[in-house]
């Protein structure tokens, strides 16, 4: 018996080339409206929306299809407050010098600081964990491959899914992030916090740093041979 079996690809959709171009352009225009936002409204977002976006993230390609990720979606005020407290404590020492001069200079045009009120006010925080061991079944304990790449792709899918749904996000990486394992009750041996995503509605007066709107030209980011 073969150790692999395939099924026909029956959900591929072919578009005429002109429609393909329109779709690519539309996707670009929609992507250009995605911004990292730092002022979140406390307006509620249904759990089912977050669930659908996490399911979309779960369709990402991964090494040997082991899906080496776990998403902890946090709506609990108590848990959000604990995360804010721990993150702000770390960020204070970061901004007070731990980051080093070069890093702090690079952040100046973004205007960030140690205050992270959105960690408490946004309706959803999504803590993303990567898994060293796993497999196609959640209970497997095999080696995972290309873990960073896989979780990075899934996180990208999640950001796009939330944007597509009509929400704004912020990627947040307090350093070190190990406090997230304890607060979220995750296994420290096998799982590593990868990123914290904040998701919700922007406040009416939300702004975007000009610095963040500067995107490299196609000639700078791509080479066609
Ligand atoms: N984690 C800190 C610092 C920070 C680091 C980078 I690199 C950014 O692009 C933005 C912020 C903070 O969230 O303030």
UniProtKB/TrEMBL annotation:
Alphabetical UniProt keywords: Flavoprotein, FMN, Oxidoreductase
CDD domains registered for this protein in UniProt: iodotyrosine_dehalogenase
Top-level lineage group: Bacteria
Gene3D superfamilies: NADH Oxidase
Molecular-function annotations in GO: oxidoreductase activity
Residues annotated as domain Nitroreductase: 33-201
InterPro entries, per database record: Nitroreductase (IPR029479), Nitroreductase-like (IPR000415), Nitroreductase/BluB (IPR050627)
Protein name (record): Nitroreductase family protein
Species name: Pseudoalteromonas ulvae
């Amino acid at each position: 018996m073969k150790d692999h079996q395939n099924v026909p690809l029956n959900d591929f959709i072919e578009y005429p080339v002109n429609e393909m171009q329109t779709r690519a352009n539309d996707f670009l225009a929609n992507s250009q409206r995605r911004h990292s936002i730092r002022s979140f409204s406390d307006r509620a977002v249904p759990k089912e929306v977050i669930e659908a976006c996490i399911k979309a993230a779960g369709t990402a390609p991964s090494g040997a299809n082991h899906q080496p990720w776990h998403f902890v979606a946090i709506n609990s005020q108590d848990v959000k407050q604990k995360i804010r407290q721990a993150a702000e404590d770390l960020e204070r020492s970061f901004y007070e010098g731990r980051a080093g001069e070069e890093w702090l200079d690079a952040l100046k045009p973004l205007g960030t600081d140690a205050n992270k009120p959105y960690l408490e006010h946004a309706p959803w925080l999504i803590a993303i964990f990567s898994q060293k061991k796993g497999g196609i079944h959640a209970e497997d304990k095999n080696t995972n491959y290309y873990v960073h790449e896989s979780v990075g792709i899934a996180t990208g899918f999640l950001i796009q899914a939330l944007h597509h749904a009509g929400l704004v996000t912020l990627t947040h990486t307090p350093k070190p992030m190990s406090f997230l394992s304890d607060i979220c009750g995750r296994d420290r041996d096998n799982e590593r916090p990868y990123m914290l995503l904040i998701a919700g509605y922007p406040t009416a007066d939300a702004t975007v740093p000009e610095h963040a709107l500067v995107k490299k030209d196609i000639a700078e980011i791509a080479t066609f041979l």
